[in-house]
Write a structure and sequence with these properties.
The chain is an alpha+beta fold. The chain contains 3 helices and 3 strands.
Length: 130
């Protein structure tokens, strides 16, 4: 003969699994989303540094820096940073390359922004004054 406690617990494990499984899957998706965002931040920073490295050369230009950073993003992570915008400025002394965009979304409706910037002095020949 079964006790009333055992009879009331029937189906409890199934109900627990049905309620907890979506929560666990959502938590896994959140971990994956933030991992992608972290990786996208590093890729954007590397692209900005590559662009600054190309633009700061003696015969470089702001356009060379922008296109180099854009090409780096295309090669390293073509679908990781979406809606991206790469800008580059170069003065006589300093070059700055900025990469902005959003991380690809695993969780619908969640858009995590990515932004990186690299600044470097411009390489140029200076005559020896002495």
């Amino acid at each position: 003969m079964r006790s009333t406690v055992a009879r009331n617990d029937e189906g409890f494990a199934t109900t627990e699994a049905v309620l907890i499984t979506p929560i666990l899957l959502f938590l896994v998706m959140v971990v994956i989303q933030f991992g992608l965002w972290f990786h996208a931040q590093h890729v954007a920073a590397a692209a900005a540094e590559e662009g600054a490295r190309a633009a700061r050369a003696e015969n470089g230009s702001a356009e060379v820096g922008r296109s180099t950073a854009d090409a780096f993003l295309d090669q390293a992570a073509p679908r990781l940073v979406v809606d991206r915008n790469v800008t580059s400025t170069r003065t006589l002394d300093i070059v700055t390359v900025e990469v902005e965009g959003d991380t690809v979304s695993v969780i619908p409706g969640l858009s995590l922004p990515v932004r990186a910037s690299a600044t470097s002095p411009v390489e140029r020949f200076r005559e020896d004054s002495g």
